[in-house]
Amino acid sequence: MNARYLLASLICMLLSATPAFAAGKGKAESGETLVVQQIVQKNVAARGGLKAWHKVKTMRMTGKIDAGKLRSKPPVPLYAMSKVRFDPRKTKLEPEARVVQLPFVMDLKRPGKMRFEMEFRGDTAIQAYDGASGWKLRPFLGRRDIEPFSQDEMKQASQQQELDGFLIDYATKGTRVESEGIEKVEGHDAYKLKLTLKDGQERHVWVDAASFLEVKIDGTRRMDGKPRQVATWFRDYRSVNGLMLPFTIETSVDGVNGSEGIHVEQVEINPKLADSRFTRPD
User: Is this prediction's pTM over 0.85?
Assistant: First the structure.
């Protein structure tokens, strides 16, 4: 799977919002809106609270990202290509393919800055966005010169929310939320919320009915020039400086076999990150 889609999922790990919650108009709301308000309030509290997130100016995540499977030998045993009758007592089966995991570092900084690095066989691929323009380095593909983001990549980067996700200060971000009832996510009840972003994009987020943490989101991404549905699951939440963050993120893309994962090993809150780290080198 393309790392761009996993990256987008990691940045968008926390979704949900409702303008009515923070508008402060002082009038009674409908019963459905009150339910949405309660879900959002509990979600903000479960994530660590509004004040705590306002103090976060930068963030660094390190870990490993799934990059497909590797077999040391052909998956088809030799006996399958011969006329010799298969005897399981005399035949040693080949081991299953192992998942290749590559180290990554992702830096985030307000307002809207992002840098993602991934290592493979001594090379480092980079994708970065400084809040206005993006650039990339892809030595894995034999491209060792810095290139600008494509039109689709620029659109995706400009649409990403701040490091606190779509929920925190959502009213100023122009997000609208509607309740779509309760559904099961991995066997547990979760509130399904429909989000309409400022630019008209629609997403869904599922908030666990017990913990009030996000357990799943969906959305649409362009892949090979075509829009595809993407679903992302969040697991293994841990507390980092009082903030609840998922350390395991699994993403699947419609039409692509299997799923890929991000395995976070460490999160740093407010590390020193110079603006020059995100701008394109001369």
Answer: no
